[in-house]
Specification:
This protein is mostly helical. It is built from twelve helices and no strands. Helix 2 crosses helix 7 and helix 3 runs parallel beside helix 9. The protein starts with a helix and ends with a helix.
Length: 334
């Protein structure tokens, strides 16, 4: 029964995320903004909503044991950037290689991706540091959480400010598919776009609530730590929107959108979501969490170095996949 609940909830989440993302692309096109903003902000936030809503629902809106709900929330928060920086990039590189070959260079617009990774590494390092702040130092934890929140809004400001120049250089946003509601013969306008955004968001919230319930009961059935199961299963399921969108974009040669969708989501999930964890969960240095944090830094730092060398190719992203394999082995045998 638990598996059916997980499956149905996942389908609802994916439909909601796809609906939300489709509306965001049309919103970006209507505003005449760059692919960097659409990928790193609109598409990234839209497809990151499943991961964002699961810890929110787990901590604030679920019934059941509080410690279990905290584990689900922390697992979703830390597992999301781990998945994005490791197996998601590996899968994107694999599908790019099928179309272009393993040695063909990947060429995202460099300034946006570097900005994303710089802000992610800063914010995630701050979130990792907060794990070691004693819980009785509540003033320090709250202060660091507020810095994390502020850092994301500064990042948004810098990303949006860079948009105009990128549009002039030919990196303007164009929606790939018609607005879903327009297929029902509803006139396409700003109101219709906003309505579809609300529909997508509602589906994501409902699916997230069912998913949290399923993970709680599956962990008990399997006899596993809820935190370990959440780190492994919740991100695998909820990262599917990012994987699908980025794979489609990289196969079409739209590397800026493909990478921005992933690295922009990493900034969102490395700043705002850890702030939630700091404020609403114990946020303590358990070994599973530390393994995930360490491998996330390794994978993201490696990508940053490869991009700096101006020679990022699909086979380089095999390393990122191996980082996730190492995490799975640590969970299984550590």
């Amino acid at each position: 029964m638990e598996l059916w609940i997980l499956f149905i909830s996942l389908v609802v989440i994916l439909v909601g995320a796809e609906t939300f993302t489709n509306a965001l692309e049309h919103f970006g096109e209507r505003l005449h903004i760059s692919e960097g903003v659409t990928g790193s902000v609109f598409a990234a936030v839209g497809t990151a909503l499943p991961e964002a809503m699961i810890p929110v629902v787990a901590v604030l809106a679920s019934s059941g044991d509080l410690s279990v709900r905290h584990d689900v929330g922390v697992g979703a928060i830390l597992g999301a950037p781990l998945m994005l920086s490791t197996i998601t990039l590996f899968l994107m590189g694999t599908f790019a290689a099928q179309r272009r070959g393993w040695t063909q260079a990947l060429r995202p617009e460099p300034t946006g991706v570097h900005r994303d990774l710089d802000w992610f590494l800063f914010a995630f390092a701050l979130a990792a540091l907060t794990i070691f702040v004693p819980s009785e130092w509540q003033w320090a934890r709250v202060s660091l959480a507020l810095v994390l929140i502020l850092s994301y809004f500064v990042y948004l400001l810098l990303t949006i400010r860079a948009s105009g120049k990128l549009v002039e250089q030919g990196h303007g946003t164009e929606a790939d598919h018609p607005l879903f509601l327009s297929r029902l013969r509803i006139p396409e306008n700003l109101v219709t776009i906003l309505l579809q955004l609300l529909i997508g968001f509602g589906l994501i919230v409902g699916g997230a609530k069912g998913f949290v319930y399923g993970v709680e009961h599956l962990a008990a059935w399997l006899g596993l730590s809820t935190l370990a199961l959440s780190l492994l299963i919740v991100p695998v399921a909820t990262e599917l929107p990012e994987k699908v969108n980025s794979i489609i974009w990289v196969r079409r040669g739209r590397d800026t959108l493909a990478f921005g969708n992933i690295t922009g989501a990493m900034v969102f999930q490395g700043s705002l979501l850890p702030a939630l964890g700091v404020l609403l969960t114990p946020w303590v240095p358990r070994k599973e969490a530390l393994w995930g944090i360490g491998l996330t830094f390794l994978a993201a730092g490696y990508l940053k170095l490869r991009l700096r060398s101006h020679a990022l190719r699909p086979y380089h992203l095999i390393f990122n996949g191996l980082c996730y394999l190492a995490f799975g082995l640590l969970i299984a045998f550590g």
